[in-house]
C-alpha cells in the first residue's frame, strides 16, 4: 500500500513540473547584443523573413513588426511567427541596455522575453533578434526581399551566437 501511495505521489509530482521550453541555441555559447545599436532607427515597418521552429512544425506565415515613435519612446505592433506559432503584441518597447529590448506587459515566458539585437546592417535594412534563452530568434527586413549577402551575414551571426541553423525557416 505504501508503494502505491509513493508511486501516485511521484506521478503527481512529475505532472506538476512545467514543460521544458524549446531552445534553438546552445546556452553554453556566449550571446552578445549590438553595442552601437540606435533604437530610433527602428522606426517603420519590418517584414519577418526567417524564424526558428521545431523540426516538422507546420510553421506559420511571415510576420511584420511596426515600430512607432511616441512621447515615451517606441511602441511596437507585431504579428510574428515564433517557434512555429503566430504571436501578436501591441505595446511599449523599453531598452534595458544598448541593443536589448523589453516588451512592456508581454508574457515573460513567451514573446516578452528580452529581445537582443544580435546584428543590424549599417543601413538598418536587416535586423537579427535573439533571446538569451534561445526560445526564439528571427530575422526582420525592411521589405520581404532579403538579399543573399545579408541572409548569409544574419545566418553567420545566429550561428556564432549558438543557434541551430538547421531549425531556421526562411520564408519565401
UniProtKB/TrEMBL annotation:
Q: Which UniProt keywords apply?
A: Signal
Lipocalin/cytosolic fatty-acid binding domain location: 40-170
Name the Pfam families for this protein.
Answer: Lipocalin_2
Entry annotated with the keyword Signal: yes
What residue range is the signal peptide?
Answer: 1-19
Concerning PROSITE patterns, the annotation shows: PROKAR_LIPOPROTEIN
Q: Is RNA-binding there in the keyword field?
A: no
In Swiss-Prot or TrEMBL terms, this protein is called Lipocalin family protein
Species: Rhodobacter ferrooxidans
